[in-house]
Amino acid sequence: MSILIGILKEIWTLLGEMAPYLLFGFLIAGVLNTVIPKNKIYKHFSGRSFWSNVKASLFGVPLPLCSCGVIPVAAYLRKEGAGKGATISFLSSTPTTGVDSIFATYSLLGPIYAIIRPVAAFFAGILGGTMTNIFDKTQDDTTFLQNGFLCNLCSETEPHSHKFHEKVKAVLRYGFFDLIEDVAKWILLGIVIGAIISFLVPDTFVVRYLGNPLFAYPIMLLISIPMYVCATGSIPIAASLILKGMTPGAGLIFLIAGPATNAATISFVGGKLGKKSLFA
């Protein structure tokens, strides 16, 4: 009973620290989803140029999509003519961070992590897309429809407008219903795991095995790459391990590699983009 009470206290503490930032992040995510025209984003992803990778990574950083939720979006981009490099850039940068996880990162890990994490996600996306363009020459891009229209609110393809109250409703529906439905269970799972680590894992264990970068970095990579964890759900886990003595660099590796890819993403890239893109 004492163990259960201790874990519940840790859960309550983590949840209390993250809640205000999560709520604000969900609101901003709803605004972004409503006001950024989808067709204006899609048209910049075609081709094999370096700048298409930069733009795909830049657009992906603030979007609140998890590493599984990003798959259908990436599949759509690819189908409509996005290059393989830009698709990989988008797949790498988008799930690694988002406007909601940036605020949540600040709540538990402070401003340095909150700044470094999206910057690292941005450059990781560019690197992944560039490597794909270098290693995979079998591009089969189609002509991209740059002048199409796709409404963010109702997905209609004919140009039209919506009233202000409809836009507000769409912001709240996406930010506090659709997005929460998509990521809530993974955030709660991350908080529970973080609480268990904080309460049960001895400090000496973490310091011994994860306090040395020579061991901690490859260990965290091996754990993170196939693992499914969302950008926000990874934060309490990393915070708990860092507080126990894990090197901060290993924490950043987990925050980047954990959400960036998992078994489902690996399968998607291998099947839709080919083995060379998967390797890159």
Descriptive overview:
- This protein is mostly helical and 280 residues long.
- It has one domain (2-279).
- It has helices at 2-35, 38-42, 50-60, 70-79, 84-93, 99-109, 111-135, 164-200, 203-210, 213-224, 234-244, 248-260, 263-272, 275-279.
- Helix 3 packs parallel to helix 5 and helix 3 runs antiparallel to helix 7 (111-135).
- It is globular and about 60 Å long.
- The termini are far apart.
- The relative contact order is 0.16.
Secondary structure elements and their pairing?
Elements: H1 2-35, H2 38-42, H3 50-60, H4 70-79, H5 84-93, H6 99-109, H7 111-135, H8 164-200, H9 203-210, H10 213-224, H11 234-244, H12 248-260, H13 263-272, H14 275-279
Helix pairs in contact: 1-6, 1-8, 3-5, 3-7, 4-5, 5-7, 6-7, 8-11, 10-12, 11-12
What's this entry about, in short?
The chain has 280 residues and is mostly helical.
**Structural category:** mainly alpha
Q: Which percent range describes the beta-strand content? A: under 5%
Total number of beta strands: 0
Unreliable stretches (pLDDT < 50, length at least 5) are 141-146
**Apparent shape:** globular
Q: Helix segment count? A: 14
Give the integer mean of the pLDDT values.
Answer: 81
What Rg is obtained from the alpha carbons, in whole angstroms? 20 Å
Distance between the termini: 49 Å
Sheet with most strands:
none
What is the count of structural domains?
1
| Approximate helicity band | over 70%
SSE run: HHHHHHHHHHHHHH
